[in-house]
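I hope you will forgive my troubling you with a question about protein structure. The matter concerns a single protein, recorded as an amino acid sequence and a row of backbone structure tokens. Please examine both parts with care and let me know of anything in them that strikes you as inconsistent. Here, with my thanks, is the record as I have it:
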Amino acid sequence: MLAQKDIDAVFVLTPLFVHYPLTRDALLAGKHVFCEKCLVFKPEEVHALRALSLERPKQTLQTGLQRRYSYFYQTVKDMVDKGILGNVHHIHAQWHRNMINKPSSLWTMKPGGEKNIDNWRVYRSMSGWTSPIGCSARGRTS
């Protein structure tokens, strides 16, 4: 696919642990790349992709952040920024994503934290990038 001249852009919509090689290969093949969040997990991979991107100014490398820019999330962020909610001392966030009666998949158990790390980053950006005093989590492996 990367060798095809009639393909201008590639969407990387895969588990996080393969984002780096797929994004790198697409950039090296001269393609524009839209990579679903998180871009990569390791700092050295971020630096390598940045360097590749800077060497190719006519190519676009973009990370998808659809929830962060949704009207709902922006409204909540605006309310926090304006103090409408007062001093926020506690945030309770849950993520279920159609998991009722569905067995866990290995996709979510790959290295790097996968979607849970990204969800946390979205919640933190909504609260003005505050740092937690404490955190707890529950989960299961099957």
